[in-house]
Structure formats: structure tokens, C-alpha cells
Amino acid sequence: MAEPLYGMHGRIVAQPGHGDELAAILREAAAGLEADPNCLLYVVSRAADDADSVWVTEAWTNRAAHAASLEDPAARELIARARPIIASFADRAEFRPEGGKGLPQSS
After folding, report:
1. What share of the chain is helix, strand, coil (3-state, %, to 5)?
2. CA-to-CA separations, 54 to 35, 98, 104, in angstroms, rounded
3. Which domain holds residue 12?
4. Is residue 50 part of a domain?
5. pLDDT (0 to 100) of residue 88
6. pLDDT of residue 84
7. I need a labelling partner for 75 at 20 to 30 A (CA). Which of 26, 52, 58, 64 fits?
8. Are the C-beta atoms of residues 41 and 58 closer than 8 Å to each other?
9. What are the E-state strand segments in the chain?
10. What is the CATH number of the domain that holds 71?
11. What are the CA-CA distances from residue 2 to residues 5, 61, 79 (Å)?
12. pLDDT in tens, 37-93
């Protein structure tokens, strides 16, 4: 049996006034993942009612692929740039994607 897909949805809160900067860094991360076949989805969204909250929704071929992506030198550089402007990781949920537009069909 194939490993299950891995997903995560989380809200990252920037230091006051740094929401735009944090979102830009996370969009850079999304662009860098375009070439990674193990990253099925990486969407950066903004909270409509909180300028400093940025949501990220990810789907990966498996949990190990997600962990490996965090070891990439380009990802580590983006993490280092983002860390000083992050106030908190406010909400986080891990999940197992079951299917839908953009995801591989399960058998």
C-alpha cells in the first residue's frame, strides 16, 4: 500500500505591520516548490480580518517529502529571513488529503 498523502494548514502571525513581508517570503517559497514533484499544493492566503495573519495550505506526496523540503538550502534561507518577523504559529492542523482538484486520484 502506498504511503498516504500528507497535508498541513496553518496560520502564521507576523510581527505587527509585517504581514505583507511575510506573505511575500511565503510566496517565494511557493515559487521555489514549483519544481518539486512531491509538493502537490502550496497556497499562501491572507486573512481578510487580520493584516498580519498569513495562512499556508500544503499537500505533499508523503510526510517524508515535506520534511525533506525543509532541509533544502533555498528553503532554509527563506526560513531564516522569515523567522525575525514571525510573532507566532497560531493555528496548525495536519491532515491526510483524500482527493480533489489538483491531487492524484486514489485507488
Report:
1. 35, 35, 35
2. 23, 24, 26
3. 6-95
4. yes
5. 97
6. 98
7. 52
8. yes
9. 6-14, 39-46, 53-60, 86-95
10. 3.30.70.100
11. 9, 10, 30
12. 999 999 999 989 999 999 999 999 999 999 999 999 999 999 999 999 999 999 999
Is the residue at 48 inside a domain?
A: yes
CA angle 102, 79, 98 (to 5 degrees): 25
In the numeric block, which cell numbers belong to residue 85? 518577523
Q: Is residue 71 included in any domain, yes or no?
A: yes
Q: Which of 13-27, 41-55, 92-106 is the least confident region?
A: 92-106
- Identify the residue whose cell numbers are 489538483: 102
* pTM for this model (two decimals): 0.90
What total of structural domains would you count in the chain?
1
CA torsion sign, 68 to 69 to 72 to 76?
Answer: negative
C-alpha to C-alpha distance for 86 and 88, rounded to whole angstroms:
6
